[in-house]
Amino acid sequence: MTQTIDERYRHWFDCLDEADRTDLAGIVGDAREDAFYRELAFGTGGLRGKLGLGPNRMNVYTVGKATQGLADYLNANFEKPMVALCRDTRHGSEEFVRRAAEVLAGNGVKSFLYERVEPTPALSFAVRELKCSAGVNITASHNPAAYNGYKVYGADGCQITVNAAKAIQAAIDPVDCFDGVKAMPFDAALSQGIVQRVPERVLDRYIEETLKCSTGEGCSSLKVVYTPLHGVGLECVGRVLDAIHVAEVVKVTEQCVPNGDFPTCPFPNPEIREALELGLKYCDEVKPDLLLATDPDADRVGIALPHGGEYKLLSGNEVGLLLLDFLAEKAGEGGHDLGRKVACTTIVSAPMADDLARARGFELRRTLTGFKFIGEQIGVLEHQGREGDFLMGFEESYGYLAGASVRDKDAVVASMLICELAAHWKAKGCDLYEAMQVLYANYGFWGSALLSQAYEGPQGAVDMASMMHGLRAKSPSEIAGLLVSEVIDYIAIAPMPCVNPSDVQSLPAADVVELRLEDGSRVLFRPSGTEPKAKAYVFAKGANRVEADEKLAALSATAKNILEGNR
What whole-number distance in Å separates Cα of residue 286 and Cα of residue 305? Predict the structure, then answer.
């Protein structure tokens, strides 16, 4: 039976110790309603939420409940399940990962825990390398300090599938987070060997596999400023850039200190300029070719570069396209049959990738949003004995991957390849901004924007669902003066053809609505899978840069009104 907010609050109050009760009593008004109106939803991204007390918050009780459900699922589906564990530098991460290990141990599930904070892709690698049944990473990626999360991986090293998420949620639902969780004290579990440390050789193997993805492009003339944004990237990114002999890597000292408060960048998201400001100050002094910034769990990377007396930031789409073009060129030069190569991106990423694939002659597969779907495509190739044909994957939110040993976006391999990309174009007398202008000239001018609208609390969830329903019930016939030529509702999508017409790729249902316009421009709307907000992805096509930018501004204004419910 569904509990009311007051009933949930009373249950928590009765079960907490005196210190937590005092903290709980201080949560009042809207904050109490938001903390108790629901349980944290478990999806393909696991859990993510604000830190604090309550069932709609990240705390040791909700982590314990989720882990009990995960353990029940694993014990029901695997003979002797094992789990790899990792954490980032956020508040609560060490406490939460220990709690996960304790609950797994209490249910007879062996776990391997990284000794230090390590990147998300190193967790994906460890799941596969140690032949684990699952993985758990305690991280909230690029969210502000008030958030943390619980990201779950399957035995293939991908974030869990929709079906697995539903099954784990079904196992979590009946668990009482106070009385229904079995656990073994951490030190006892460690001494008995049911919790073990991930061997150092696993991280060494991860670095070794990363370096196998190098194109061999010399970086001995390249100067780089690097920042991990107070997160976990320093060790692995540093090792890889040293290995490819980048001439000079200047580290942003203040941001090399792990700190869950993110004191120098309150929004540690490498997509936004504010997160890079301290790094850019370093750039003013040392005059590098490139600034690299990895997000706190080192699965995404943003860049900036000097051009025309200022520092230009390239978008995730632009970097993805440059890498795609670069790796295709390198594969061709290496004698590979590009007709067998497969690249992957998502339905909300750069439309230009289709044109690039046609011109270069490789296959492009589009997946739903979420790198797990790109990881699944590597698994399909692996099953066919073709994992070597995987060229790369990218998504618009600054996630990139090459190689088949990791099945999630990877800022470590991406940092290496971006340096080689920059060195490649530097040898031609161009920076990466100029290189992107070459691609625009070859494949057409596009502008892109990502918009978001917060929908907090219980009423916010209702309003967001209403906005999406309105798009389906009565889609606009035009946007900013451009006719809508096609409406694609991904909840009931027919099989969508890949670039290669002999192949047909079916996409699972998803809460996404795409509006394609008469000139090839498009706008896509979807709720965020991990945060209480909706997103709009805007792509504007123009005959030149000015026209593309003007269309982008007009389309973005209309998309913003739709997101806000003002149609």
Answer: 12
Report residue 255 as tokens: 């941001």
- Element housing 420 (H / E): helix 411-427
Could you tell me whether strands 223-227 and 290-294 are parallel, antiparallel, or unpaired per DSSP bridges? parallel
Sorted by sequence, the CB contacts under 8 Å of residue 328 that are 6+ apart come out as: 338, 341, 343, 356, 360, 362, 391
Q: pLDDT value at position 465?
A: 92
Q: Give 41-77 pLDDT, tens digit per residue.
A: 888 889 999 999 999 999 999 999 999 999 999 999 9
Q: Which amino acid is at 482?
A: L
Task: Give the pLDDT band (50/70/90) at residue 504.
Answer: very low
Known catalytic residue: 141?
Answer: yes
- CA atoms of 282 and 204, how far apart (whole Å): 30
CA distance 71 to 51: 23
**Continuous H helices in 37-119:** 60-77, 93-106
Compute the distance between CA of residue 410 and CA of residue 500 in angstroms, rounded to an integer. Answer: 27
Q: Tokens 């969210």 appear where?
A: 143
In what order do the strands lie in the sheet containing 248-251?
248-251, 223-227, 290-294, 301-307, 310-313
pLDDT tens string 348-396:
999 999 999 999 999 999 999 989 999 999 999 999 999 999 999 999 9
Choose the catalytic residue: 141, 214, 349, 415. 141
pLDDT at 256 over 50: yes
Distance, CA of 40 to CA of 454 (rounded, Å): 17
CA distance 227 to 65: 35
- In the sheet with 390-395, reading across from the earlier edge strand, the strands are 363-367, 342-346, 390-395, 399-401
Q: Kindly tell me the burial class for residue 146, based on how many C-beta atoms sit within 10 Å of its own C-beta (0-12, 13-18, 19 or more).
A: middle
Pairing of strands 522-527, 533-542: antiparallel
